[in-house]
Amino acid sequence: MAQEASVHVDVLIVGAGISGIGSAKHLQDQCPGKTYTILECKDTFGGTWETHKYPGIRSDSDLYTFGYRFKPWVGAPIATADEILRYMGEVIAENHIDQHIRYGHTITSCSWSSADNLWTVNAVRKDGSEVVFTAGFLWMCQGYYDHKTPYTPDWAGMADYKGHFVHAQLWDPATDVSGKRVLVIGSGATAATIVPALCDAGAKVTMLQRSPTWFYCAPNVSELADRLRLIGIDEETVHRVVRQDYIYNFYEMDRRSREEPEAMAEDLRALVRGYVGEDFNFEPHFTPKYRPWQQRLAQLPDGDMFKHVVAGNAEVVTDTIDTFTANGVRTASGQEIEADIVVACTGFRLSVLGEIPFAVDGKAVDWSETINYRGMMFTGVPNLVWVFGYFRASWTLRVDIVGDFVCKLLNHMDAEGAHKVEVALRPEDADMPILPWIDADNFNPTYLMRDLARMPKRGDKPEWQHNQDYWSERSEIPAIDPAASEFIYDNQRAEAALEAAE
């Protein structure tokens, strides 16, 4: 098919999920003169909330912090996917972002030309037609995992299984589970969501886990928000105050998880006992081998999964799979688990910058050879920012502060008449150790560890790492000086340009 004439914008945003929509709002507000387009491969907005259709899908963070800074959340703290999509739809409509979104566009390549100070982005539509975009700046908001192909281990005997096997990411909502024996493999946030929902739908559920997970059980209400509304406080103030309350509480949880992990662990167990009684036995299925928050803390609103375990609707088995059989699986200890349906909640397949081929001045970019700047920019790659959120706090908290940074950077470039910006190690970084993207002792989910070598590298200084610490970054990122020496504008270090001007 014929290729459409190229379209030029100042900023090209990739992805219309929670990151892309929030970034567009910040760009409109803080850089009102900039033209922009959002490219989205799906037929609608939502990103991860559009991809996943499994039973009970809900947020694993409270919406006062997972929601945007600029848009008050009104509702239960832990929200369903439909509620989140409705919220995002309101943001799009209220800010007229829809006119900037091009759905059904899959990017096939991105190439930077220093001669033109432009990105050229090739995309293909669902009808096979091609379109070319040029942009001065790329704002990558496509997430960090493959939305089409989830991670499924190559278990022995899978071809022998006669029942229905599905990964949770590919779940068909039309699937009837009533009266069925359902085996859920995994124990993270997805399993914590799907197990109680399957029980509610009338299934008999077994959750098979390699090792236990930490869970956070709490009522799905905000007493503070309800009280503020009762006394007549406006929703903008309610959102700001309750958001700050959640941020502080989770800061304390994160701090205590590192400084007094045993006490934090006992507090988490006490929350569980509040729903299932003081005599609940945590051994062996609910005693993790790692400290709280070393992996993501799965949310259980109202302790729903534990209630189903105690009621006998769900059983937990801690073991590994030896082989699939015709009727289910056999574990390493020899236990046979029969199942009509097997649901793999085995996580994501990491996708680095959407697996899009990138090139800078004709040379292919290997992201593993770059060094990241605060988890946003990368050495040797100009005019590009990647939004990569938090694991121990709401993803969207970083969408907001990165949005502020990008707009500050763009406005600084305009003020200086610069067309190109990149980050580079400073003379004082010459002997800095170059390390993997993240310290495994800091955060070590399996999907990240499995493909860590493909990720950009980090240094041992704050500028050259993504530390996953919102509580430090919320002051550090706003304080970034665009004229600092790690920035190079039009091939000249910012400090050198400043000295020359003076």
Largest sheet, strands/sense/barrel: 9 strands, mixed
- What would the average pLDDT be, to the nearest integer? 94
> Structural class of the helices, strands and pairings?
alpha/beta
- Rough outline: globular
Unreliable residue runs: none
Assembly context of the chains = single chain
**How many DSSP H or I helices?**
13
**From the alpha-carbon coordinates, what is the Rg to the nearest angstrom?**
24 Å
Into which percentage range does the β-strand content fall?
15-25%
Q: Could you tell me the number of beta strands?
A: 24
Percent in helix? 25-40%
Question: What does this molecule look like?
Answer:
- This protein is an alpha/beta fold.
- It is built from 13 helices and 24 strands.
- Strands 1, 2, 3, 4, 5, 6, 17, 18 and 21 form a 9-stranded mixed sheet that branches.
- A hairpin with a 4-residue loop joins strand 5 and strand 6.
- The longest helix has 25 residues, at 235-259.
- The mean pLDDT is 94.
